[in-house]
Design a protein that fits this description.
With 135 residues, the chain is α/β, with parallel strands linked by helices. It is built from five helices and five strands. It has a five-stranded parallel sheet, covered by helices on one side. β3, α4 and β4 form a beta-alpha-beta unit. α3 packs parallel to α4. The chain is globular. The protein starts with a strand and ends with a helix.
C-alpha cells in the first residue's frame, strides 16, 4: 500500500517551530521511524507552503491512502476541502496539537468533513496512529 503524507504551510519547520506546541521532533525523524515500523507500506511525503501545490499533488492520484495535516489551511481552505471530497480513498486528517485547546480560529476545520477521521493532540505520534489506522 502506498500512503501519501502531506503537510501544509510552515510544517517544514517541525523540530524548531514553536517546540512548546509542536515538539522538537523533525518530520524527517518522524518519517524515519514510520518507515522502520511500517515496512510493508510505501510512505511518500510531500510538504508545501502553497495551497495550489498541495492540491496539484493530491490530484496526482498515485497513492492508496492519504494522511494530511493541512496546517493553517485546515481553517479556511475550501479549495483543499473540495479536493479532498473528490478523493475516494482512505483519508486521515492529523493535527500535532489539540486544535480545540488553541485559539478560536484554529478550532474549526473546513477540511475534516471530507476525511474519514481526525487525530488531534497526539503530537508527532498522530502520524503513526493515522498510518496504523489504515491497516
Amino acid at each position: 500500500m502506498k500512503v501519501l503524507i502531506v503537510n501544509g504551510p510552515n510544517l517544514n519547520l517541525l523540530g524548531t517551530r514553536e517546540p512548546e506546541i509542536y515538539g522538537s521532533t523533525s518530520m524527517e525523524s518522524c518519517l524515519e521511524k514510520l518507515r522502520s515500523e511500517f515496512t510493508s507500506y510505501e510512505l511518500d511525503y510531500y510538504q508545501s507552503n502553497i495551497e495550489g501545490e498541495i492540491i496539484n499533488r493530491l490530484q496526482e492520484d498515485d497513492f492508496d491512502a492519504l494522511v494530511i495535516n493541512p496546517g493553517a489551511y485546515t481553517h479556511y481552505s475550501y479549495a483543499i476541502a473540495d479536493c479532498l471530497k473528490n478523493i475516494r480513498k482512505p483519508k486521515i486528517e492529523v493535527h500535532i496539537s489539540n486544535i480545540y485547546k488553541r485559539e478560536e480560529f484554529r478550532q474549526k476545520s473546513v477540511t475534516a468533513a471530507n476525511t474519514d477521521a481526525v487525530l488531534s493532540g497526539f503530537g508527532m505520534d498522530g502520524y503513526r496512529l493515522a498510518v496504523l489506522s489504515l491497516k
